[in-house]
Amino acid sequence: MDSIVCYSEEIDDFEETVREFQEQLEGFAFKKNSLGLIFAEEDTEFDEFYEVASKVWDFPFIGGTGMSMFLGEQGQRKNGISMMILTADDCQFSAGITTDLTYDNYKDEIKKTYDELKAEHASEIKLIISYGGMAVTRERVASDDLVYAISDVSGGVPVYGGTAADGFSFTGFRVFCNDDVLANGQVMALISGNIDPRFVVINSVQNRASFSYEVAEAKNNTVFRLGHGAFLEALKRENMETDKTDVLGVYILSPFLVEIEKEDGDSVEVARNLTTLNQVDGSGTFLGVVPEGAVLNIGVINRTDVKDSVARAFNEIWDDIGGDTKCRTLLCTSCAARFMALASDTMAETETYMGKLPEGVSLMGMYSYGEYCPVKGNNTGREYNMFHNFTFTILAL
What we know:
Layout: E1 2-8, H1 14-24, E2 33-40, H2 46-53, E3 61-65, E4 69-71, E5 75-77, E6 81-88, E7 91-97, H3 106-118, E8 125-132, H4 143-154, E9 159-163, E10 175-177, E11 180-182, E12 186-193, E13 198-203, E14 207-219, E15 222-226, E16 229-230, H5 231-237, H6 248-251, E17 256-261, E18 267-272, E19 274-277, E20 284-286, E21 295-300, H7 303-321, E22 329-335, H8 336-341, H9 348-351, E23 362-368, E24 371-376, E25 383-388, E26 391-396
Helix pairs in contact: 1-2, 3-4
């Protein structure tokens, strides 16, 4: 599979955007089948972009908004629109999007979309690239549940992607497939054929606070009781911020850590962002699921850990792909909290790989509100499709 990345700062005049992309694509050899991946700032009108782009390219486009984007040798970019084209003679792509999702319909809608896309393939699905909206309220489906649903209907096919993001307004994130644009939908691209996807998940949480409680009562991504009291009371006991309702900004550099037990007895530790506090019932709602019976800890994230974790991620992927000259594509997702931890040093992550990419390898990524990526269990080494926070992830193709 071959790939190439294009970038433009123009998001108002899409005729100009497409012209710039065409110039950057000059000399690039398209194969029999192609797929376009798009990351862009939240003000981008994706349906208008597709109206222009579809007159030039006849393959599907999927993507979403990111808090910021990163590219190969261009580094981090806050504004604009980036496009990665995947193309191959020996791979097949199909792309689609669900309707708006609720807890009542999400499993059926994801199954319906997956089944429709799978029917277009003549061979087994090797990879699912998927992006979705963020669970900003209890009524919105938690990202864990979305990833599990995709994994279940596909029989465990690797799922890579993440949650669309914006500039921390939590109102501008969207995902799209061609001219369909939704804030609360799930977009998927299925890939079959001659690919061997490799994954790296690196957690940037290296240190922990003394906070440690068992989750006594929880539902989906909302925790009601820790130990013998309300979630809110546990935070007060530890002299933590409890006066506000929207607390994502307050706790952005203090991730909650939880170990999730798998059905086969294995376990995976993940980080979770605390987003809101309910002053009436004393509960706390997270971006991801926190199961009852698990032990909840608090980690501490800092700039040095973020930089080191990116270096570890790329060292690991270089070791994995080694001299594999067929591996030409790196797709990355990094947590928006990591971007905040970098403060004014916003190029720190991208500087880790700039000038070090092998010739012919393209890279594109975004800062998200959560990452989808298979991760190895603590006991068996088996890979599980999971939703993550505070991680840097890489998909190598």
